[in-house]
Amino acid sequence: MDFKQLEAFVYVVKLKSFSKTAEKLYLTQPTISAHISSLEKELGVQLIVRSAKEALPSEEGKVLYEYAQDMLTLRDNALSAFQNISRNVSGTLCIAASSMPSQYVLPQMMSAFRSKYPDVSFNVIKCDSGEVVRSIVNRKAEIGMTGAVIESAKCVFEEFLDDRLVVITPNTERYRKIGEHGFTLQDLAREPFIIREPDSGTRRETERFLRSMHLDPASLHVVAQMDDPDAIKNSVSQGLGISIMSKTAAADFQRFGLIQTFDFDHVVLSRKLYLVRNQNHTLSPAAAAFLRFAKKEAAGSAQ
After folding, report:
1. Of 104-108, 203-207, 248-252, the least confident
2. How far apart are CA 123 and CA 210, in angstroms?
3. Contact in structure between 140 and 95 (CB atoms under 8 Å)
4. For residue 80, what pLDDT band results from cuts at 50, 70 and 90?
5. How far apart are CA 16 and CA 56, in angstroms?
6. Does the keyword Cell membrane apply (predicted)?
7. DSSP 3-state assignment of 121?
8. What pTM was computed for the model?
9. Rounded distance, CA 283 to CA 146, Å?
10. What's the half-sphere exposure (Cβ side, CA atoms, 13 Å) at 151?
11. Beta bridge partners of 183
12. Where are the domains of the chain?
């Protein structure tokens, strides 16, 4: 049984008429009859006794009528509660996010969210993926965004967005020739390399990929370690070395001709971005609304 069937049944009992019920619910009389017949078939009893003048509940119908009213009331109360939550979502929401989502995903998402929930403000903690998880565990933040799954018994990770990783190089003819057919592992190993900090999701995914291709990350010719994507892009544009980062994060420097981006030879390197929450902590209305909103936005962008 479903709520539409129960609603039709309750109104037939109240109004003692199929035609009046159809008018009340803006349905056709055959639809009301079909709802009642489906209920009777499912329960194996006659619920409505039909006569030429009116429709009355059978003894079994009287029993169902009491339960059906309670179920419909409970449904209406639940809908009302959620509508009130939606209207009253307010306060400050603290989000811990790693570099890429904090700079290139969150700003647009926060703006869209506030157009729906204008009474919510944000406190964004920008840190590496490991610190994001620690912030969630220690309840410094309610929602996290990371580029890697960090082992934690207290955190729930949900896949959120796909993030493509590319090799970024200075915008020179030499690198254009190297990368015109895709970067090889040999190219990567012999060029000066700028690496992210140890807890970075980008670094974790890069090292995982290199090991899967039988290249020891320790063999890279590392000339610098940095924890900020903009600092890495600036350093690459000045010729310090090459690096691996999110294609989305690199797009602005590439657009203005400051760097170049290349895929690996015959390989597309990508990773997932994750939404993180503490499984032992009940989210505030603002955090719960933002989590639903973020997943819906991500699902829409993937279509």
Report:
1. 203-207
2. 36
3. no
4. low
5. 6
6. no
7. strand
8. 0.62
9. 18
10. 0
11. 264
12. 3-87, 91-160+272-302, 163-271
